[in-house]
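Z., the sequence and structure:
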Amino acid sequence: MNTKNIMIVGVGGQGSLLASKLLGRLLMDQGYDVKVSEVHGMSQRGGSVVTYVRYGDKVYSPVIDKGEADFIVSFELLEAARWTEYLREGGQIIVNTQQIDPMPVITGAMTYPDNLVAKMSEHNHNVDAFDALSLANEAGSPKAVNIVLMGRLSHYFDFPEDAWNKALEACVPSKFLELNKKAFELGKSL
């Protein structure tokens, strides 16, 4: 199998590291060679967080170059737009429509860009944009946005549902497991 590339992008504190851990576990359990690389940046201060997940028969590097990502899963709208140059032509963006103002917007130096979903769609990308925060709240916690997005990502893969559940059980503490399973289902059945 050719190597497939997934980027998980967001803002520090949104749970992208748990999402990449879950995805890596699922893919390893399915027999793939998996490489995961995390780039934190200024994540402690609400800055960009990027995780590369690459899988296939044999993966030699964890890094994804521009134009190589098959999927971008974004926890925030502007982060999706920021990383689109990494998506291959015809690639898939799955994006939470939540907007988190970066520091230049907070200070008034810039304004949050308008019409980002339309702009991303214009560049021959498939954009699956939805309000993952509302679904996470419905599941029981706004912190479950990451698992809602993983549920939505599962829609694009042909892995058995019990494999996703097994990965959830391995990665999520037991006291939060039912909430996260509900969040995953809400994202998957969107």
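Residues 4-188 form a domain with the Pyruvate-ferredoxin Oxidoreductase; domain 3 fold (CATH 3.40.920.10). Strands lie at 4-11, 33-39, 48-56, 69-74, 87-96, 126-130.

Let me know what you think.
H.
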